[in-house]
């Protein structure tokens, strides 16, 4: 009986949320990993491999449950096919910000 309930729960959840068997959006497939380093003075260096014909925007989250905001120095940067590097200045006594990159096809 427990196995049947588990199966029915899975079927119900799949029917409510749908299966994830469609191909990823082009933007999601082109999200590069970020390399992030922060020194003791609060200087944050963010680097990633860019692709030509893509625009990149870096977002940050100052608090764990806070809103994501576009980083002023990382707004709509043109990809070059090389590593792009930007900098952010933060208070070194506060928890480190979280960063993410969102690409957009030109």
In short:
The protein is an alpha+beta fold and 106 residues long.
List keywords for this structure.
106 residues; alpha+beta; Immunoglobulin-like; 4-stranded antiparallel β-sheet; 3-stranded antiparallel β-sheet
Topology:
Layout: H1 2-17, H2 26-29, E1 35-38, E2 43-49, E3 54-61, E4 69-70, E5 77-78, E6 83-89, E7 98-105
Antiparallel strand pairs: 1-2, 2-6, 3-4, 3-5, 3-7
Structure description:
Mean pLDDT is 84; it is low at 9-13 and 15-23. The protein has 106 residues and is α+β, with helices and mostly antiparallel strands. The radius of gyration is 19 Å and the shape is globular. The longest helix has 16 residues, at 2-17. It has helices at 2-17, 26-29, and strands at 35-38, 43-49, 54-61, 69-70, 77-78, 83-89, 98-105. The protein has a single domain (24-105), classed as Immunoglobulin-like (Sandwich).
């Amino acid at each position: 009986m427990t196995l049947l309930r588990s199966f029915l729960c899975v079927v119900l959840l799949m029917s409510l949320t749908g299966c994830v068997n469609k191909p990823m959006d082009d933007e999601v497939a082109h999200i590069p990993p970020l390399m992030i380093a922060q020194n003791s003075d609060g200087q944050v260096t963010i680097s990633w491999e860019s692709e030509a014909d893509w625009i990149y925007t870096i977002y940050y989250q100052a608090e764990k449950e806070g809103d994501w905001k576009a980083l002023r120095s990382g707004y709509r940067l043109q990809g070059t096919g090389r590593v792009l590097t930007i900098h952010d200045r933060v208070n070194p006594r506060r928890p480190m910000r979280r960063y993410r990159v969102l690409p957009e096809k030109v």
